[in-house]
Amino acid sequence: MDEREGNGEDVVYDRALLLHGAKRNEVLTLEEIRRYGSDSFGDAEYVRIYGMPPAQWYGRGIRLLGRTAVECTRDALADLIGSDIASLAAKMPSTSSFTVIDPFAGSCNTLYWVLRHLVKAEGIAFELDPLVYALSNRNIAFLDQKIELVQGDYQTLLENRNIPADRGVVVFVAPPWGTALDERVGLDLRRTTPPIGEVVSRIGRTFSGQPLLFATQVYEKVNPASLADVRALVDWSELRIYRLNDEGRNHGILLATRGGLRRPRATSHVSICASQESCATLKSGRTGASHGGRQKSAWSQWGASVRTCAFPAGSRSGWLRHLGAYAIPSPTEAGGNAMSGLSHWQLDGSAPDLYERYLVPAITVKWAADLVERAGVRAEEKVLDVACGTGIVARLASRRTGHGRVTGLDLNKGMLAVARTVSGGDGTIEFIEGSALDLPFAAGAFDVVLCQLGLQFFPDQKKALREMRRVLLPGGRLAVSVYSPIEKTPGAHAFVQALDRVFGSEASRIKRGEHSFCAARDLEELLRDAAFEDVEVDTVVQRIAFPSVLDYVRFQLLATPMAVLLGGRPESERQALIDEVASQVEGMSDPTMLQRGEFSFPQEAYIGTASAPG
């Protein structure tokens, strides 16, 4: 007998045992729920559902079958899915109320979270399996959301449903994956039970007269052909992957619209989040910043040339000059109203070291690994990392190239010095000083160009992208990432609000400049305008964590150009300000961001891949 069939301590509580083995149709004990989390994910609290950890929901009388424990969407993921669905649903025309349909209810946890985010909504769920239905119907009775769970096949039951034409229809599509998921090769959307395309087509026919918003749960790796089949059935779609688990074991959603509902297009190729609540589209080049060559100032010590953004005339700091990697008000442009000494401030010698030591492992290494993976860097290839900073992307790429050549380019001498030190100086990576707007390389010099979280700062993004295309070989590959609106990264959003409260209404402009892209479409259009081909842009979420709120605030104010806010102040005052900002951030943070003494939150970015014309 296989050890999975036994009851001893050597039994491994994993997907195979609970989904296909002896525990498939058994109601799990609390200890078994916790063992599944520990054995499979190293976290006994892994199966968090309905906003509660296992002990809490189990204590309320909620129970799960083995297969439901595997297939249910846990809270961290369901919360993100619900938030993204609600954000897109809010754009549905002439709609103030919603009906959310879940054809394959299972535990109903995702539906529960969608309803938490989507106001004036009711939920209808269908479950064919009598065992799952009985337990889930009992479980949702303990919840505070209006969910109608119906036993039977959604196909026939939905046809008899009359949903008023003035209600928006949202459909969460997550049929059982079963053998459709092979964790090594990914999820085949044609082999789910039933196939995803069949579900989208049938519901599309049933509600052919109404705009529909589909949210299909997917795995980090998706069979490309099956994904293309589903996308062909809808008017618009966007794939989002949430980095909550180990690399290769993450989930996401394919957001899609059909029947006249399309996501609004940006009105400009370049946009910036100009306030906490909205994005204002802006044109580049309004402040007269140089678009070519090097830009000499204290801020060029921070890196590649940055995008110029225009703010309304008459604001306290006037126009912003973007020199280096972050934006600062120029005293001459601000009419003397800017903070004294801003244009003369530069990082002390330890700041790049602090950045590499603390912010790289906490934040940028995760995005770097994702970017290199998406670019598909291979042995012997020549790779360029634009705006390389302390070189984490270049180092990860170098591990793949073997005897290939990796070059990192940046304007920041201090960051480049750290990059050379950390890389070991073994000659596998060359770090050089240069501008993204005038790359010092011959045409066709590289197989791959990477640019992580730097494009948003370039004063002429189109020119920078054209330069990247120029130095690529025909058919060469580009991978570029930028942060999404700051509201999608709750830790950073709380931080900028705290900065404005403590230092004044414009203190957060530097940080907000990191989040200047308002939509994935903005990046997609920039790439197409630069004559790239095979353009794809995904919205990706990583979970980042710091030891505490105080550590996060301290690193932001000491290891980035935001240290300008503390410049020239006595040490006692500096520490008091750091403590006050940390206190404000903690007060504005959701309790889920403050668990186990850490400061942890989702961080969202747009990641684009493309190829040079072949």
Identify the notable features of this structure and list them briefly.
single chain, 614 residues, alpha/beta, Rossmann fold, 14-stranded mixed β-sheet, 19 helices, 20 strands
Counted beta strands: 20
Summed up, the helix count is: 19
The profile of the biggest β sheet is: 14 strands, mixed
Overall shape: it is globular
- CATH topology of one domain: the name is Rossmann fold
Amino- and carboxy-terminal Cα gap: 57 Å
- Overall structural class, as computed from helix and strand content, comes to alpha/beta
Q: If classified by CATH, what would the architecture of one domain be?
A: 3-Layer(aba) Sandwich
Rounded average pLDDT: 81
Q: Level of helix content?
A: 25-40%
Strand content: 15-25%
Characterization of this structure:
It contains 19 helices and 20 strands. With 614 residues, it is an alpha/beta fold. The strands form 4 sheets. Strands 3-2-1-4-7-9-8-19-20-18-17-14-15-16 form a 14-stranded mixed beta sheet, with helices on both faces. Helix 12 links the parallel strand 14 and strand 15. The longest helix has 25 residues. The radius of gyration is 25 Å and the shape is globular.
Helices and strands, with pairings:
Blueprint: H1 15-20, H2 30-41, H3 54-59, H4 66-71, H5 75-89, E1 97-102, H6 109-117, E2 121-127, H7 130-140, E3 147-151, H8 154-159, E4 167-173, E5 181-182, E6 186-187, H9 196-206, E7 212-219, H10 224-231, E8 236-243, E9 251-258, E10 271-272, E11 280-281, E12 320-323, E13 326-329, H11 351-375, E14 382-386, H12 392-401, E15 405-410, H13 413-423, E16 429-433, E17 446-452, H14 461-470, E18 472-483, H15 490-503, H16 509-512, H17 520-529, E19 533-546, H18 549-558, H19 571-588, E20 599-611
Helix pairs in contact: 5-6, 11-12, 15-19, 18-19
